[in-house]
Amino acid sequence: MEASNPDRERQLELEIQKLKKEISSCKALVEKNKVLEEKHTQSQIRFKTIFEQSQLGNKILGPDLKILEVNDAFIALLGYADKNALINRRVIEFAHPDFVQHWHALQVKLWEEKIPSFSLDTCLVRKDKSIVWCHVTSILFEDDERTLGYTILEDITERKILENRAKRLYEAQELVMNTVAHDLKSPLNTIQLLSGIIRSNIEAQEADKALLHLSLLDKTCRRNEVIINDLLLIGELELEDGSLQKSTVNVVEIANTIVEQLGAAAQKKNLVLVQRSPEPVVFAHVDREKLSRVVENLVSNAIKFTKSAGQVIVSVKEEEEHMLLQVEDQGIGIPESIQASIFNKFTKAKRKGTQGEQTTGLGLFIAKRIIDMHEGKIWFVSTENSGTTFCVRIPLY
């Protein structure tokens, strides 16, 4: 039997103690990792819950702006049924064409300039082609050695509508002040001057002169009435914010009525004013009163800017599920230098008619606003000294 070696036993005892400590440390490390893993799991669960249950649109983007994950609110925001239509598509595909650059800016700020977070207001296109305004906030985070963008989208469409309405109301107020300061000031001065002259005529018992000046006074008042009515209509259009009283009407009948109403004005200038539509009936779902105002403005302008012995032709026809109205004249045309601003509210294109007829410069702006409300289009083709054709295209339904 081999004799015991105290030194060897002591060495073994020390190694056993050391091994026990290492085992204990490993157990502690395992327990610590378990706790960390549990915390990580709980954190992931909380993140997933917040992501999925958020009432705001949430999505995760890759550096190439590819959509990696979305929540139900984002799916609903864009009007889709499930996320399969969105995943792995670039968010730029859903951007309004006028705002694609917003997403390029976000991409540069986050992944190139490494800014931790970035916010902007932008516009997206829903599945049904309607638009939705969003406030977008995006932050960077690391995930499996990838840098991703966590993006939150808040629907601010209603806020944008209110902002645009406030802007239009401000512009309408500005228009009133501008017109009062300029277009109404001169006629009011004329009225004041004529009143004094008429008083002098009466005192001098010069009835003929008094009647002449009364006629001028009446003409000036009627011009002011036209300006005021245009201003009131613009205010009405801005307040209504796109509200229309639509019904199914025969647009040819509207054209006939306007031609009949303005016949005397055309005859006074020795003009031929006719309505030549290929069909007697073209029905469209429109606001009768407002569309009548458009036709009246276009025909009235054609008469004003056509010289004696000229011709104005009004026509209506159906074309590819749209109503197409045309007002063609043989007038002085629109100079190329002012064509780009012809529909502007404060247009510099305002001119007198061929016999000095006054214009407010607001008629075409009003016409375009009404056509826009009908989701239609208005345009013109004009050659100076040869004539102009205005065209209005509105969906039938």
Structure description:
The protein has helices at 6-53, 72-77, 100-112, 157-181, 185-203, 207-240, 251-261, 263-268, 288-304, 336-339, 363-373, and strands at residues 57-61, 67-70, 117-125, 131-143, 146-155, 246-250, 272-275, 283-287, 311-319, 322-329, 377-383, 387-395. It is of the alpha+beta class and 397 residues long. A five-stranded antiparallel sheet has the order 2-1-5-4-3. Strands 7-9-10-12-11 form a five-stranded mixed sheet. Strand 11 (377-383) and strand 12 (387-395) form a beta hairpin. Helix 4 (157-181) runs antiparallel to helix 6 (207-240), helix 5 runs antiparallel to helix 6 (207-240) and helix 9 (288-304) runs antiparallel to helix 11.
Descriptive keywords:
397 residues; Beta-Lactamase; Heat Shock Protein 90; five-stranded antiparallel β-sheet; five-stranded mixed β-sheet; 11 helices
SSE order and pairing:
Elements: H1 6-53, E1 57-61, E2 67-70, H2 72-77, H3 100-112, E3 117-125, E4 131-143, E5 146-155, H4 157-181, H5 185-203, H6 207-240, E6 246-250, H7 251-261, H8 263-268, E7 272-275, E8 283-287, H9 288-304, E9 311-319, E10 322-329, H10 336-339, H11 363-373, E11 377-383, E12 387-395
Parallel strand pairs: 7-9
Antiparallel strand pairs: 1-2, 1-5, 3-4, 4-5, 6-8, 9-10, 10-12, 11-12
Helix pairs in contact: 4-6, 5-6, 6-11, 7-9, 9-11
Instruction: Give the averaged pLDDT, no decimals.
Output: 83
Quick one: overall form?
Answer: elongated
As a whole number of angstroms, the C-alpha radius of gyration is: 37 Å
The total of beta strands comes to: 12
User: How can the largest sheet be summarized?
Assistant: 5 strands, antiparallel
Encode the helix/strand succession as letters: HEEHHEEEHHHEHHEEHEEHHEE
The span between the termini is 113 Å
The helix tally amounts to 11
Uncertain runs:
none
Q: Roughly what percent helix?
A: 40-55%
Structure classification: alpha+beta
The amount of beta strand, in percent, is 15-25%
- The largest sheet has its strands arranged as 2-1-5-4-3
CATH superfamily placement of the domain at 244-397: Histidine kinase-like ATPase, C-terminal domain
Second-tier CATH architecture of the domain at 244-397? 2-Layer Sandwich
